[in-house]
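#lab-general

N.A. 3:47 PM
ok so I finally got the sequence cleaned up, no stray characters, all 282 residues accounted for. can someone with queue access submit it? mine expired

B.Y. 3:52 PM
send it over

N.A. 3:53 PM
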Amino acid sequence: MRKRGRKATDHAVVGIVTAILLIGLIVSVISVIQVVYIPTMMGQREAEHMDKVEEQFAALTSVIDGQAADARKGIPIASFVTLGSRELPFFVTSKAFGTLEVLDKASNITIQNTSLFSVGRITYSSMNAYYLDQSYSYEAGAMIVSQDQGNSMLVRPSFFVDLNLSTLKVNITFNVVNISSVGHKAMMSGFGTSPIQTEFVGISKNLTFHNVTDLAVTSPYSNAWFAFMNHTLISAGLNQDGNPHYQLTDTGQTMKLHFLSKVNIFFKIIEIQAQVGPGWIE
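B.Y. 4:20 PM
back already:
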């Protein structure tokens, strides 16, 4: 009888040890997944969300450009931007948040150092937990992506350069879209999908500037404007045989363009109102 009691006790101890080892193995596997694989998975998830926001912002840009070209009043159009992403179930993860806002008079365009025009923009800013933060902005007709390393222009504004090779006269057409907010519906934060509604209001400025030598854009994205402007002017033939007809500088806040010969600028400001969130407030 004593021997049988010892065997039962030994079996019980072996069962407890086996259970502890299995629990330890499960905990170790979960820990490895949590520490090694989950950050990679969440980083990929947030990267995919950034790609989705880029597509949505490109669609928003297309809508606004269409409204500016169509010039029909009283027709608000809703676009949608996904602000963030949820956490994974059953694991310790963090949500990704984002902010969509309309910023009035956020940047300035200066012509001939005297004529100052303030323009607003629409900006989405991410608050990621695992992936590099990015922002997307619609400014003066351009779509710009920004990271810590810098910013670049994904969609170009309505800026055209016409060079007459026989007379070397330069005419520039610059159609600027000014974004302005309506009421208090100018910002939304979170991780859901937010609508943003835009509507054509009218043309507030339609001016012609003769004998211009200086044009400047003051913006947080001045290096994106610098790269765009340099490429546009070279493509127009203003840098032939390595002899540019202009001087271009970027201070980190302002892109400055100085023409070595005088040009004409046909300048227009197209007014677009924007509201963040459902509903439309007149």
